[in-house]
Amino acid sequence: xxxxxxxxxxxxGTEIGKTYVTAALVRHLRAxxxxxxxxxxxxxxxxxxxxxxxxxxxxxxxxxxQGLAITPEAVAACSPWRFTxxxxxxxxxxxxxxxxxxxxxxGWCRARVxxxxxxxxxxxxxxxxxxxxxxxxxxxxxxxKALGLPALLVSGxxxxxxxxxxxxxxTLRAHGVALIGVAVSESEGAPTLPETVADAxxxxxxxxxxxxxxxxxxxxxxx
Length: 223
Description:
The protein is globular and about 45 Å long. The model has no long low-confidence stretch (mean pLDDT about 95). The strands form 2 sheets. It has a 6-stranded parallel sheet with strand order 2-5-1-6-7-8, with helices on both faces. It is built from 8 helices and 8 strands. It is α/β, with parallel strands linked by helices and about 220 residues long. Helix content is about 40%, strand content about 15%.
């Protein structure tokens, strides 16, 4: 399945593997000879750049997948809105006396897509779950709808993941968001196999589903 020129990576929940899946997709596209730019415009719980732990942050992982060094310029180009507190962006920003407007976020993302000019695939990774707040008044779904991009939904394989994923699928459909598929990121210590979770999501959701195992590659049936 060919990917669209720009794609939003949304989550059925938080801390379920969005960045892992996005990085795996970046590596897959690069290995196939494609050009790709991965962005994490909003990032919370981010260490300072001089902290060795930054390499393990979402931004650090995406830069590594793209073969980019951690420099102030590369970090700013990937994640212009970074916050220290591991909270929803609106709360993390408030702790730092900062604010974030949806129009600014959407405008920045659109500019990056225009820059690519169809010459490279642009991946925009969301933050938290689909309905997580991103500003005081807007959620991740509002962000996605404003961009008008198709989405790849990331689910975990933990207990309850099937319901969470199906709820997110129905929410996206109800709001007219094109969904190219669901990537099930294998959750550590899950009571069932990711294949079982993926099969249930595909069966009940009527959507293309692929599995990203721990330490594995991006599924070819989703690209």
